[in-house]
Amino acid sequence: MINARNRQALLDWIAAGHFADMAWMTETVRLERRLHPGSMLDAVESVIVLGMPYQVSDGLPRSGSPAQGMIAAYAQGDDYHDVMKKKLRAFCRSLQSHADHGTPDQRIYVDTAPVLEHALAEAGGLGWLGKHSLSIDRQYGSWFMLGEVFTTAILPVDSPVSAHCGTCTACINQCPTAAIVAPMTVDARRCISWLTIEFKGFIPEDLRPLMGLHIYGCDDCQSCCPWNDHACIADRYFLETREENILPTLASLLCLDDTGFRQRFKKSPIKRTGREAFVRNVCIAAGNTHDNQLYAPLRLLLTDDSAIVRAHAAWALVRVANHGQQTELLACLQQALALEAQPQVRGELLSAYKYRSFS
Ligand code: SF4
Ligand code: SF4
Description:
CATH architecture of the domain at 249-359: Alpha Horseshoe
Strand order of the largest sheet: 1-6-3
CATH class of the domain at 249-359: Mainly Alpha
CATH topology of the domain at 249-359: Leucine-rich Repeat Variant
Low-confidence stretches: none
Bound molecules: iron/sulfur cluster
Strand content: 5-15%
Number of helices: 16
């Protein structure tokens, strides 16, 4: 089911270390399952790949508005894992009621198991693998999530879809961090989606300015894709955007404590990332705005319980402070340094101090 090209591409991607800290990608059993989906379920005969289109709000942060952050379109509404699993369960029930030869055994997966979903989508004719490594359909573009049903039912097989990227390289050129290192090869270590969602540590300093205003995921390689210019509007979206997640103001997000974060992102995929990593992302976006109005909330975060938050707040604070705040800024960095015991945060505070005292 997975063609030789996609199998080799996965092995090459792992060999090049593009999997970042996702060590589970290399575990033998999981790798075997990705390469040979038949091993996911005893007597599996067919895999049904389904696409669920999601709503995409237009627009970039507006000048003149309070500083705003950007959340990837698929994450602006309810958690797609929950929404899609519910739909797939209903789909499975209807499949079982139509089965001619006994009840098929089936399992559903939505981004939570070792499934090479884009390769399966390509094999099943749902979409070709674009150079940004996501699936593209001629009609719907790439704004859809994938889910799979593995079943013991014997079903007719669809033909694979052919690729239609041609000579276009828009996504490669547009990627802010140069994460698409070759067609269909994304280095997760540089990808803003991975950095803001999966990665929980200190974000490498050289990547922070390149992350712009992205606070959860990144749509840049999809927004510029010509196949999305004229993508069909779906009859119905199961993932509708929540108004408050379209360009949220950074100042309000910097002030979220644990309880506030859980309430603000209830039933949202963002909740899975946790407050610490999310506020870290917001600090980076805040620093990239150079907006002095974010000075006060960032200053408060210098004493946050989380070392990750304190470190990224220091990085951002020196970028939003104005010249009139220089003396106060250096004093508060010195004060933070005197109280700080965590070695990496101390390093960040020293680097922030140097950045500002020599600028
Ligand atoms: S999601 Fe963003 S950072 Fe990742 S490959 Fe696409 S454009 Fe680059
Ligand atoms: S932007 Fe161009 S190269 Fe990239 S996925 Fe779309 S069509 Fe393919």
